[in-house]
Amino acid sequence: MKFASLNPKDNSITVAIVGCGGFIGSHLLQAVLERTCWRVFAVDLESYRIQQHLSNPRLEFLCADLADPLVVERIAKFPVVVNLAAICVPSRYMSEAAAVIRSNYDHPARLADACAKSGSWLIHFSTSEIYGKTLADSGLLDEDSADITLGGVGASRWSYATAKLLAERYMAGLSNLDWTVVRPFNFVGPFMDFMPGVDGEGIPRVLANFSSALVRGEPIKLVNGGVAKRTFTSVHDAVDFIFCLFANPEAACGQAFNVGNPDNEISIAELARLMTEIFAEVKGISVAEIPVTQMVDGVEYYGVGYEDSLRRMPSVQKAERLVGFRALTPLRDVLRESLTWFAEHYGIVAE
I need a labelling partner for 331 at 20 to 30 A (CA). Which of 14, 47, 192, 278 fits? Predict the structure, then answer.
């Protein structure tokens, strides 16, 4: 690599953030502007989450995406590139598999080629879904040794995971690319996803999905009994992890990292119960006033091609060992912050 550290006080550094207008990207952009003297070259197709930053003289915003080769070449001119751009809406994995694959493999592969040519360090956001059809008794998922089983070609649920995994393998195969892969384990917090019919279409990820139902006074729909288990991680912890990468580029280069909070594991059924309880507290109402959860079939809800993994528990030792990071925010705190924001942001619109 061309540098051993990134000095936050060095105002000659420019970081490119692709997908800066999204959930994670908006939080990362704010943190970079607050914690460093760096400039940011920000790329996205939307900017409503970052409107307050667009007048900042250290920010250059480009409304574009990675489908444009000229945009890719421009991004790769900067020494550090963080790629968060992706189609990651679960309902689209079945209905728009080809577009999902292009977004999560074709475009990142072209960016990787450009970064390899220019010498940029590419920090690429993958997904914990690359671990595939994990079972209920699956143990810790280690970044470098876990076996991976994905569904058959007819199970388009895995279009997203397959594309993300192939992108990882492609980057690792480029001998002249400085790369780091981030595998998020359910990052949650303010600005997550969307409310269907208000500022997005389709079915968002589970927390935004449940939050939408609660704010609208509709029953939470629990897919296949909610027996699957997940861990949930504060987006603020996630941003802290990225800064740990910035501080340790030599240790981070050429590595894939799980970023999650094993202490926050919960079944989706229990998540629905806990979110209902916290939402009642936030709104100052009785739990009895909230509609009862409904059970739904996964294929009927998401569409033909839906499958699930039953447990996804990250090993996080590598991140702690190599870059000194461990997620610390407790689950109840994560959910309360997310639900409070969601209720305040969408409450008037939804009523």
Answer: 47
pTM beyond 0.85: the answer is: yes
**If residue 92 lies in a helix (H) or strand (E), which one and from where to where?**
helix 90-95
Does the pLDDT value for residue 350 go beyond 50? no
Phi, psi values for residue 267, rounded to 5°? -75, 155
Segment (H or E) for 75: helix 69-75
Per-position b or e across 46-60, b if 16+ CB within 10 A of its CB: eeebbeebeeeeebe
Distance between first and last Cα of the chain: 53
Return d(Cα 310, Cα 226) in angstroms, integer.
9
Q: What is the mean pLDDT of residues 115-132?
A: 97
Q: Is 160 a catalytic residue?
A: yes
Residue whose C-alpha is closest to residue 239's, from 86, 20, 88? 20
Give the model confidence (pLDDT) of 56-97 as tens digits.
Answer: 999 999 999 999 999 999 999 999 999 999 998 887 888 899
In angstroms, what CA-CA distances link 81 with 16, 86, 332? Answer: 5, 15, 33
Choosing from 160, 302, 306, 346, which is the catalytic residue?
Answer: 160
- CA 282 to CA 284: how far, in whole Å? 6
Residue 286 CB-density burial (10 A; 0-12 exposed, 13-18 middle, 19+ buried): exposed
With contact defined as beta carbons under 8 Å apart, do 53 and 28 qualify?
A: no
**What was the pLDDT predicted at 54?**
97
Report the sign of the C-alpha dihedral through residues 220, 221, 225, 227, in that order: negative
